Amino acid sequence: MELYINRCACWAPPADNQAAVPPLDYVSPLLKRRLSQLTRMTIEVVHQVLDSAPESGLVFVSSGGESARQLQVDRMLIKDGGILPAPFSMSVFNASPAMATIALGMKGGYTALYPVRNMFREGLAYGAAPVMAGETESVILVFADQQLPEEYVPVAEPEDNISPYAAAFVLSSVKEEGSIPIDPCSSLEALIGKLKAEASCV
Most buried residue, 42, 64, 133, 156, by most Cβ within 10 Å? Predict the structure, then answer.
């Protein structure tokens, strides 16, 4: 079975303001004020591709998840000896894809994945698996990370200390106009080369 990227989107803050967030004008103010930068970026890129795969499931891949929120919870636990339910629920690893499905009314479910070694290759293989197996026609695959809090940098791997970003890809078994064929075992470099050749997302 062939695998294609039918749509893609990306969002990152400008170099001079790494704390910037997408405006999310389509999300209610009450919900929006609870969202972290990571979750806002995730919602934005999914929103940009959702119309091409409205019934698809979401696969979220991140090396750090809600690291800043987790640090806040850790501080609360150390200082107060306990944590409140609301901060905890927004600090868990799957908070971003969960909030994306809520904000965008997605009904296809989601999976949150923390890759062990090669983040892109493992994420792509996991996202492509149900499509290649014929279990679903398409999947929205999201890679997203935020900048690690300074407290975590000394114990983090160098590749984990990166600038904030989010990118979404609609993986599909159906070829459409403008589709990009992709090997489910592709490297990140190979994908970037294809996207550059198509002047898409890069």
Answer: 42
> Is residue 138 a part of any domain in this protein?
yes
Amino acid in the structure at residue 130: P
- Note the pTM of the prediction, 2 decimals: 0.86
Q: What is the CATH number of the domain that holds 128?
A: 3.40.47.10
Cross-strand partners of 60: 112, 142
| 66, 92 contact by CB (below 8 A) | yes
Let me know if residue 70 belongs to a domain: no
Q: What is the mean pLDDT of residues 115-141?
A: 89
C-alpha distances in angstroms, 69 versus 58, 63, 77, 105?
A: 22, 15, 12, 24
**Structural domain includes residue 104:** yes
In a domain, residue 83? The reply is no
Evaluate whether 47 touches 8 at the Cβ level (below 8 Å). Answer: no
Mean pLDDT across 124-132: 92
Q: What angle do CA 104, 106, 110 make, to 5 degrees?
A: 115
Containing structural domain, residue 177 = 4-65+93-197
Count of domains observed in the chain: 1
Contact 140, 174 (CB under 8 A): no
Other Cβ atoms less than 10 A from the Cβ of 185: the count is 10
